[in-house]
Amino acid sequence: MSTRAVVRIHINKIKNNIAFFREKYAGKIFAVIKANAYGLGAELISLYLENEVDGFCVATVEEGEKIRSCGIKKDIWVLGVLSKEDYIIAADNNLIATISSEESISEIKALEPYSIPKLFVAIDTGMHRLGLEKNVDVEKVFSNKRIKEKTVGLFTHFADGKNERRVFSQLGKLEEYSKIENTINNRLIKSTSSTDSGTTWNCFFECARIGMGLYGIGIDKLQRAVEFISYIVQVKTVRKGEYIGYGSDYTIEKDSLIAVVSAGYADGYPTVFNNVGVVIVRGKKTRVIGRICMDYCMIDATGIPGVSVGDEVLLFGEKNETECLKQGVFHYELLCGIGSRVKREYVF
Question: Are residues 36 and 157 in the same domain?
Fold first, then answer.
């Protein structure tokens, strides 16, 4: 079998999810495609979605360069920390860069005017990761004429988008920073992220960054756009009392039919599913038995009539999302961890 496993990405469902946000939010929408579009293929995702969004967000200058080289004309915004050299590369590639610290202000001040890209200022409003958190640092941005002229917006990131009290606290802080010395003059874009609840609080602001909302995983009202699929490569009968997998920590309680599936932790199927993972074969749910190996895992196929080599196995998707997330797997980590040898298949 030439294909061991595949992640199937439904482009029309992604477009429908973007339309969902468009209906409830009138501002600009930037699709977050950092980390290779959460492991799903940033170059093709960006090409398929360019007409649906106002721009894209990436984490690094290298990611931005790669997307720009694909022919993307829309804005590309680098959210992460940049060095002096990175700011120059950003300017050369018409990328929007980020000011996230006092050090980055100093780096930009040292640049020639033509080497300063368009800029967003990151404001730490309570997550305590990246961003300026002192009024004096924000004032430094706008006291420098060259930086001020290149600054297009302020942004923040929610620590807990499902907690209304925390969200409004952060929104209030962002609004206060935007008023410093009346610097915005209705010119700057204020941007926040969408949330895991599918809510965007950006009715307050002019730009929404949509990440997991593109794919709908774990978010009510959105369409699930991603399926992680593998295949059965062997079926065998195992007698009562025999053991399954490494460590012999699963014992067969009755004569059973088991199936070997060609996906393991090297492919991104995590060991949190050892002995508990729920998969779907021929429309029936069954579970992983034994430890997940590097290249394979085993499932109980006893109650699946006609099960055979070549059958598809849904490892993760809409039909078993609830069971998978109940096991404590972090859906962002699951997508980003899908291995390079897993084929990416785009469905329209």
Answer: yes
Report yes or no: 43 and 67 within 8 Å, Cβ to Cβ. yes
How far apart are alpha carbons 219 and 197 in whole angstroms? 5
- Hey, which residues are catalytic here? 34, 246
Q: Which residue has the tokens 């799903």?
A: 40
- Do 22 and 60 lie in one domain? The reply is yes
Per-residue pLDDT of the chain (348 residues; tens, 9 = 90+): 678 999 999 999 999 999 998 888 878 899 999 999 999 999 999 999 999 999 999 999 999 999 999 999 999 999 999 999 999 999 999 999 999 999 999 999 999 989 999 999 988 888 889 988 877 777 888 888 899 899 988 888 777 767 777 777 777 777 776 665 444 444 455 566 665 445 545 445 678 889 999 999 988 889 999 999 999 999 999 999 999 999 998 999 999 999 999 999 999 999 999 999 999 999 999 999 999 999 999 999 999 999 999 999 999 999 999 999 999 889 999 999 999 999 999 999
**Residues 261 and 325 placed together within one structural domain of the fold:** yes
Domain containing 63: what range? Answer: 11-214
Helix (H) or strand (E) holding 235: strand 226-238
> Is 141 a domain residue?
yes
Angstrom distance (rounded) from CA 324 to CA 338: 15
Domain shared by 236 and 194, yes or no:
no
Q: Is residue 4 part of a domain?
A: no
CB 72 within 8 A of CB 35: no
Domain match, 291 and 200 both = no
Q: Which residues pair with 343 in a beta bridge?
A: 6
3-state SS, residue 338: coil
**155 and 62 in a common domain:** yes
The whole-angstrom separation of Cα 300 and Cα 302 is 6
Count of domains forming the chain: 2
The structure's pTM equals 0.91
| Pair 180, 266 in one domain | no
Within this chain, do residues 38 and 117 fall inside the same structural domain, yes or no?
yes
